[in-house]
Amino acid sequence: xxxxxxxxxxxxxxxxKRGHEARKAVSDLSYVIEDGHFVSLLGPSGCGKTTTLxxxxxxxxxxxxxxxxxGRRVDDLDPDKRDLAFVFxxxxxYPHMSVYENIAFGLRMRKVAKDEIDRRVRDAARRLDIAxxxxxxxxxxxxxxxxxxxxxxxxxxxxxxxxxxxxxxxLDALLRDQTRSELKVLHRELGATSVYVTHDQEEAMxxxxxxxxxxxxxxxxxxxxxxxxHEPATEFVASFVGKPRMNLxxxxxxxxxxxxxxxxxxxxxSGALPEEIRVGxxxxxxxxxxxxxxEQPHGTVVAVEPLGNVSDVHLTxxxxxxxxxxxxxxxxxxxxxxxxxxxxxxxxxFDPE
Length: 353
Ligand code: ADP
Ligand code: MG
Known about the structure:
The protein is α+β, with helices and mostly antiparallel strands. The protein has two domains: 4-240, 3-Layer(aba) Sandwich (Rossmann fold), CATH 3.40.50; 247-350, CATH 2.40.50.140. It has eight helices and 20 strands. The chain has helices spanning 49-57, 99-109, 114-127, 143-156, 173-190, 201-207, 225-230, 235-240; strands spanning 4-12, 24-33, 38-42, 64-69, 72-73, 84-87, 161-165, 193-198, 210-215, 218-223, 247-253, 258-260, 267-269, 276-281, 287-289, 299-306, 310-317, 320-327, 337-341, 348-350. A hairpin with a 2-residue loop joins strand 9 and strand 10. It starts with a strand and ends with a strand. The model has no long low-confidence stretch (mean pLDDT 93). Magnesium ion binds at residues 49-50, 197.
């Protein structure tokens, strides 16, 4: 059982120079990770994900704010008093110990009874399908098996909180997808609060109850996968979450009370909008068709990328490039004049940065 609360958490590395504030690796982080939730910290490299995780773990001091676990301040609590287990990207196994000893080590250090250790090691090994390699040393295992040993070691501890730092990024694509699904099953079985660092929006979307999207040390949005995908709070979230990337344009106040995309007939009611806004449309929510007789096309196909189940069709439309994802191989070729149908599309509006 563990709820984790961040209140105005910040971290600066190094001392401030005279007349300058120290550069903040993270600042103003406030959110609650509910008990039993799987929460991803998502963002590009250098945005402060690992720093945040390490502060929750107690591996880094915090420079400001508070971290509470179940309502209790833990800022000054040693990592091993926080009842959490860490799984790193590089596995961090002991090379001279067998798989069994690697999994058992943390339990021995905590003076767990020998037969209880044995029960837990075998249970964790069974869950992760490594029961047949308990006697070998890590060096004779594949990367995927090593990662399973690291996971088994964390599970055997039975902590209140699991912390993961990009645990799948050293695995090849197939194994990564497989392990991702297994992680999801494991979380459902164990139900422990989990905080998961990743730069991969697909991992975050598929695994999480909530996603904390970060950019440049700040929280951009904290929400469910549905919310960050369908109701992105900022243009950053809109462009980082979802693949292919959202179409994003600047629209200006035009004639007849509408904001229009440059060189196109697309627009939105101006209402109380500022002079310029940013507008976004997801490629997978747009449709294409050929113009009817006498109808003005919206744009021209400049490239088609078939992916098997879908194809990405790139258009030029007025002054902008536009992407539409169509089913299957589609029926469009380079040079075709097309009409973009926005019936299914949600229009997202953002303030200019
Ligand atoms: P992420 O995990 O999202 O890639 P990090 O949390 O590792 O990002 O880093 C966030 C920022 O803090 C980066 O600008 C990084 O250079 C800086 N940083 C991280 N660790 C240290 C450190 N030990 N000393 C100084 N700067 C650091
Ligand atoms: Mg990191």
